[in-house]
Amino acid sequence: MVDLECDNGLAVITIDRPHARNAISLDTMDELDKALDGAAGASALAITGAGDRAFVSGGDLKELAALRTELEASAMAWRMRSICDRIAGFPGPVIAALNGHALGGGAEVAVAADIRIAADDIRIGFNQVALAIMPAWGGAERLSTLVGRSRALLLAGTGRVLDAAEAQRVGLIDQVLPRAQFTEGWRNIARTLASPPAGEIKRVISGVPTTEAVAAFARLWASDEHWAAADKVMNKGK
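The structure assignment produced for this chain is given below.
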């Protein structure tokens, strides 16, 4: 099951398949697509898993084992890759809240987000080589962008699984929170990123002409929200 909640501009997608450690089946792909449709128009998007054991434990091998031909494997890979592309292309900031381990395809979903926030006891790894396969949902390319080509090849080629602290050191995870503070912490960050400035900052970082960047700043400058905040600062202490 895939749940969607929307609150004050923040859309949260939760993959909730406890019997399969939140692994992704073909039906899950369909539900993710529908959840992304429902999240359209939100200022920011967060993706997480239910429970505290797994963010996404990869593809659901028990179900995907029925796919035996190259044609079937290709169709499945394109299907999930297109969903990860939708996540990466979401207009506002996207946060992967790593509530549990992100392994194989789960790591690929995580790197489709703009920002990865993790509980301090999780592990993450592109360990598809243990099954004699490779990342197929765009994760290898995105991993290379995050950590560099040589480190990406080393991690995905060996299937090494990192703890949260090491993943943060190499740039795979952006922020690590203590388990007790994790849910409140990532939600607070996500709510802040649902603000208009964060969305404009993502657009500029993604690469827009200078004229568009300046125009975005000017729109924010002229907004009621800016002047309400500025008045608080200017009147502080009076």
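Interim note for the steering committee: The longest strand covers residues 2-7. The radius of gyration is 19 Å.
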